Amino acid sequence: MNTLSYGLLALLSVKPRTGYELMQQIQPLWRAKHSQIYPLLAKLEQLGCVRFVQVTQKEKPDKKIYSITETGLAKLRSWLPEQADEPVKRDELLLKAYCLSLAEPRQARHLIAERRALFQNHLAKYNAQLAELKRETGLSDGEPGLRSPYFGNYILIKRAIAGAQLELEWCSWVMHILDEEQGQCAERPEP
Amino acid sequence: MNTLSYGLLALLSVKPRTGYELMQQIQPLWRAKHSQIYPLLAKLEQLGCVRFVQVTQKEKPDKKIYSITETGLAKLRSWLPEQADEPVKRDELLLKAYCLSLAEPRQARHLIAERRALFQNHLAKYNAQLAELKRETGLSDGEPGLRSPYFGNYILIKRAIAGAQLELEWCSWVMHILDEEQGQCAERPEP
DNA sequence: TGACCCATGTAAGCCGTTACATGATTGG
DNA sequence: CCAATCATGTAACGGCTTACATGGGTCA
Questions:
Q1: Average pLDDT, integer, range A173-184
Q2: Do B12 and B53 reside in the same domain of the chain?
Q3: What is the CATH number of the domain that holds A71?
Q4: Does any CB of chain A come closer than 8 Å to the CB of residue B97?
Q5: Which residues, given as ranges, of chain B have pLDDT below 70?
Q6: What residue numbers bound the domain in which A9 lies?
Q7: Nearest to B7 among A88, A95, A151 (CB)
Q8: Are A170 and B178 in contact (CB < 8 Å)?
C-alpha cells in the first residue's frame, strides 16, 4: 500500500465519499488524477479496507459511496506514528524565477502576475472551504476540538490560507522591486 | 525536453556547476535524484544546450563542470514566457494531520514536533544560503539588482525563509491547541 | 453549440525512486 | 571503524500523467 492509499483512508476516516469527491478533496494535500485513484479504491476494497454502496441517480451518472472499515481504521492507526516522508515540491515557476534576470521586465511582471492570480483563486477556495466547514460542524464561532473528526481539516485549511497569503505577499514584494527598478521604461503595470 | 531539463539550464545560466552541485542545488525548487540528473545532462549535451570540461582532482573523484551554451540560453529564453504549470505538492504529514484526531495526544505532538525540527533545519540552511549569497555578490547591505544574475536566487531564498518561518508558526499554533486541550492527562511535553 | 460538471474506468508511456556499482578522504 | 561527502553512472520498478472511452445535464 502506497502513501496515496493511506491518504484516501485518511479522508474516509472522517466521512464517506465518492471516488470523484476523494479525487477533488485530496488535491491540496497530495496531487493525484482520477486515473490513479479509481484503481487504488478497487484495491483497497479487495483488501477489506473500504466498502462501497452503489447509488443510482437520475440525471447524473451512478456513483459509489465509499466508507472505511474496521480493517482500514486499524491500518490507518498503525501508519500514523510512522516517520512521515519529507514533503515533495516541484514548482516550475520557481525555476523560471531563478533566471528571472534573463526575462524582459514585462515578461517578468507577467509571470509574477499569473502566479498572483493563481493564489488569489486558491485563497478564495480555501476561505470558502473554511466557511463550509463551519457550517458542517455548526461551530460558527470557535474551532472544532482536538477530538472532533473535523479538527484535522480545520488546521489544514488554516495552514493553506496562511500559505496562500504568504505567496501573495511574496508576489507583491517581487512586483515592487520590478516596478521600482524599471522607472526608466514607462510601461503601465498590468491590471 | 522536460521541465527538469529547463531547470538545469536555469541554474547553469547563472554560473557553471558540476552535475553533483546541480543535483544538490535544484532540490528546493524541484526534487530530483542524481540518477535522473546525470542522464539528462548527457542528453542536454547531445542537444548542444550545455558543454562540459573534465577536471581531474587529486584526493577526490574527477568531475565534469557544465556550462550553458548559446543554444541553451536561446531554449531558456523561449521557455520563460510560456505558461508555468501549477506547483505540485505531496506532503505525507498533511495526510496524517487530516486524521490527527485518531492519534493519541502524545503521538500527535510527536508528529508535529518532528515537522518542527525538519523546518528548523531548513530555516538554518536557507539562512546560511542567504549569507553565502551576500558573500558571493559582495552586497552585504542591499540586495542584488534586477539585472544581476543572482537576483532570482535572492528572491527565492527570501521566499524559502518566509515559508519555513510560516511552517514553524503553524507547528507552534497546533502544539498550543494540543497542549491546551490535554490539560487532564498530565504528561510532560516532549523536549 | 461548445465547454464544463458529474462519474467511473482502462491503457500506454514518461517521470522519478530505489538499488547496484565504484572508491578515496575526512570526521566523530 | 563506521558514516558521510564527493562524484558519476546504469537498470529495474513503481508512481503519475496523458489519452481513450462514455454520456446526460447545465450554462454562456
A1: 84
A2: yes
A3: 1.10.10.10
A4: yes
A5: 140-141, 182-191
A6: 3-79
A7: A95
A8: no
